[in-house]
Amino acid sequence: MFDSLKKELSRRALLHKAGFGFMALGVTGAVGHIIKPTRTLAQAGPAPSNEPSLPPEKKLGWAVVGLGKFATQQIMPSFGECKRSKLVALVSGDRPKAEKYAQQYGINPKNVYNYQNYDSIRDNPEVDVIYIILPNGMYAEYSIRGAQAGKHIMCEKPMANTVEECQAMIDAAKKANRKLMIAYRTQYEPYNLTAIQLAQSGKLGKLKSITSDHERILNPKDPVDIWRMQKKLAGGGSLYDIGIYSLQATRYITGEEPVAINAMMYSTPGDPRFREVEENVNFMLHFPSGVLANCTSSYGYSSTKRIQVFGSDAVLELDPATDYYQHRLFINRDNQTEEQKIEEKNQFALEMDHLSECIMQNKQPKTPGEEGLQDVRLMNLIYEAARTDKTIKV
Ligand code: NAD
Question: If you average pLDDT over residues 233-260, what whole number do you get?
Fold first, then answer.
């Protein structure tokens, strides 16, 4: 919606970097808006604390299960920014790879496990929490085994393939008296927290509508995408993998649960990537306050990670909304668009420290297993709405 304006702002940011900062202030934008100087918004929501890091012996010990792209490129390096969490163990089917990372992160080789001796982690008092980062279809088994080994569990999204598996994970954690959290990083990320605060405090007026779009091209030659083409390991297609961000956004921005769902689904006929999982899902949600949400999810076109919130007084846009870094937030009010700059924080470190804090203080995590179950339940209703061409009442 603000595309030409954003291009203009990006151009100005480049000019600013190049030493032409004066050009960025108070001039008429490419689409006739007045671009105001950026400002820093006070941090909203459950903000990351500025308290100092705990000494290493007081931090909780974490084991990472699965040393794939996301684990090794985002999660493991983020322990360096954690204040309450430290990486002490690895679980992998590839011993040389695990040993290489153990050496890199100063992990004792005796704390390197494989999928067969995983359960013996119960005897390791250095491990308090297990963070599971495997193909989605493996989450139920490894979460349940982890809880039965007496460890707290952080599980990546989507929580599991089915509602029944999600419930079994919740039950296993309860039975073992351990915490179970789903790694919904965006609910710990400062730009998204600010959007929630602005939407729910009435700063945009009465909320009317939300659009959220998450797209990327599924690459059959990339090892990280091979299991994503298999229903047993992925659970679903683009909806399970990235459409879940669109769904999450509508729920955390409104703070409500949808009461009705419509959807359409389409996969390119004959495309071998979509034999088992879907390519495109567009869905609409109706919330009790009257907010209507329009969401898209696709494996067929290039990268989009956007959330737009339409209020009676102003429109908020996050774009990118759910990336790892470099989010941008725009507010359009009375035809004037303003970009708000917020201090970036490492959302992975924030979410891991949140679970460590909940364990230390015996609190319920903000994104517990029930949150993951609700998304899996809703995603299955979205599929049902698309399959039956009917509005599903939730
Ligand atoms: P990946 O393929 O790089 O990692 C998966 C890991 O599981 C690999 O190390 C692989 O060796 C291992 N594995 C074990 N058994 C396997 C099997 N039977 N088949 C295939 N792999 C097996 O994938 P990824 O992109 O790192 O995604 C892993 C998980 O993390 C997914 O659930 C994904 O949804 C989630 N993820 C979350 C985010 C986020 O921002 N929260 C981002 C990316 C991925």
Answer: 98
